[in-house]
Design goal:
Length: 340
């Protein structure tokens, strides 16, 4: 049986890297499960840690791409037990990985963790009949880390974000990125809800592709909706998304009468938004949400999701993802499958 070793990407965040071995193993194990490979392990060679996995056959091109797209992957080797041989990764998609590390701002979700969230969700998907690109919604998109990670994986991405400044900055950044990378694209602003000017909700819609013909026929898309995620079912079509992935707001703000709060208790937010999220996700589609487990238990978050018709995955490795971000935040990920 061929044996492979993955060298973990050290990234730029030491706290995350130190905490990430368990998460990286969990992420690789859902990929192995989806391919019916034996469960992976980890090992240390000359003081450097690796993720180790065996496959019944040598890796094919699709396997190599899937390995390359794991959040932890930095380099791949095959081994005969004595020596390591460097192995190529698969081809990447049009939008390069670097996109999510270009911007730095307060409140940004670590891009490695964001990639892991998407992978945990997509390997829990029930298979589709065709192999069209997946469609992902981040219902609390911030300045777009999940959306950009989804684009690097070849998906279509849609984000809903309450703060107009974040939406504006994401749109300006992405347009500039497409121009600098000389990627063929089109951009329009489209009304997605609201009968009149005052009530109008707009989406910034990008389509892009490697060449003119693909841009006309089968472009990849990014849509940024400036609005309240509680209204997701008004902005998006029923069953539109395969994946719903996001990093929930971290603060708990209790409303005083007369004051407007953009941030709420994440449980309240999830309880109010879940029916709409359920509506816009296809049956068998998967939701993955990160939250601060320091403040809110897994059970408290699972209840409103289950009550709405999501089946929460509590078993291993979905229960292995809690990790320390800083003194105030212990981040965890809840993954759930949409039932009929
Ligand atoms: C943790 S941040 C997401 C950060 C994002 N992953 C990034 O890296 O840029 C959560 C976001 O949820 C947004 N948010 C909070 N309540 C919302 C609501 N009701 N509808 C839409 N977005 C909301 C906040 O404005 C904030 O940008």
């Amino acid at each position: 049986m061929p044996r492979y070793l993955i060298l973990q990407d050290p990234g730029h965040n030491r706290v995350y890297f130190n905490a990430s071995l368990g998460m990286a193993t969990a992420e690789l194990s859902v990929l192995c499960q989806s391919r019916h490979w034996p469960a992976p392990t980890d090992c240390e060679l000359a003081g450097i840690r690796y993720l180790q996995f065996d496959t019944p056959e040598p890796l094919n091109a699709a396997d190599r791409l899937a390995i390359a797209q794991l959040s932890a992957s930095y380099a791949l080797f095959s081994t005969d037990g004595k020596q390591l041989t460097p192995e190529p990764f698969g081809n990447t998609h049009l939008i390069e990985d670097k996109i999510s590390s270009l911007q730095k701002y307060a409140g940004k979700t670590n891009e490695h963790f964001t990639r892991l969230m998407i992978n945990m969700a997509r390997y829990a998907l029930e298979p589709t009949v065709d192999d069209r690109p997946l469609r992902l919604l981040d219902p609390v998109a911030g300045r777009g880390t999940t959306l950009f990670e989804a684009l690097t994986l070849g998906m279509h991405a849609t984000g809903i974000e309450l703060e107009s400044r974040s939406v504006h900055e994401t749109q300006v950044f992405f347009k500039k990125f497409l121009e600098q990378e000389r990627i063929k694209h089109a951009h329009k602003r489209q009304r997605v809800a609201g009968k009149n000017k005052q009530e109008a909700v707009f989406a910034e819609q990008f389509s892009f592709a490697g060449d003119k013909k693909s841009l006309a026929q089968s472009p990849q898309t990014l849509s940024l909706i400036e609005g309240d995620t509680l209204r997701a079912a008004e902005f998006c079509k029923p069953n539109e998304f395969d994946l719903l992935v996001g990093d929930l707001p971290y603060g708990i703000a209790h409303g005083n009468k007369g004051q407007v709060h953009t941030s709420r208790n994440p449980v309240e937010l999830v309880a109010s938004a879940a029916p709409g999220w359920h509506r816009v996700t296809r049956t068998g589609g998967v939701l993955a949400l990160a939250w601060n487990a320091h403040l809110i238990s897994r059970q408290a978050l699972a209840e409103p999701l289950q009550a709405t018709g999501f089946r929460v995955l509590h078993h291993s490795p979905y229960d292995q993802l809690i990790h320390r971000v800083d003194n105030a935040i212990r981040r965890d990920l809840i993954v759930a499958v949409k039932q009929d």
